């Protein structure tokens, strides 16, 4: 839901689509029903629709947004304020033991590998919420 909420501005009627799923996050309210299943499937379809994801323009620079959590890593390739591609991956058990600096760097390395076909030969900027990674090339 986190990544979907981040891009809700590209989805018409997002709050109505996501309400059954957001209701599951209330304490003690997790009950998966046919309504929540339908909302989940509809949100998956809408988020992967070409109206949400833009086509890349290889004459323009890309922005690679990376983030890591305790459980996984997530990346978004953006161009002109629109998402081009989304990626996430669950961490392996030994990766969960990494210090936060290494977890954030893992997200960047994972993103560079996944979006290589977009990035090779093109200008791009990497964004992360971990300030010390700004200096990893120094």
Describe the structure.
The chain has 138 residues and is an alpha+beta fold. The chain has 2 domains: 2-47, no CATH class; 62-130, Roll (Ubiquitin-like (UB roll)), CATH 3.10.20.370. Helices cover 35% and strands 21% of the residues. The chain has a 4-stranded mixed beta sheet. Helix 2 (14-23) packs across helix 3 (34-47). The longest helix has 15 residues, at 100-114. It is globular. The relative contact order is 0.14.
CATH class of the largest domain: Alpha Beta
Instruction: Give the biggest beta sheet.
Output: 4 strands, mixed
- Determine the number of helices (DSSP H or I, runs of at least 4 residues): 5
Distance between the termini: 36 Å
* Structural class computed from helices and strand pairing: alpha+beta
**What would the average pLDDT be, to the nearest integer?**
84
CATH topology of the largest domain: Ubiquitin-like (UB roll)
- Radius of gyration (CA) equals 17 Å
What string gives the helices and strands in order? HHHEEEHHE
What's the structural domain tally? 2
Q: Which shape, going by the Cα principal axes? A: globular
Query: What percent of residues are in strands?
Result: 15-25%
Query: Mind telling me which CATH architecture of the largest domain this is?
Result: Roll
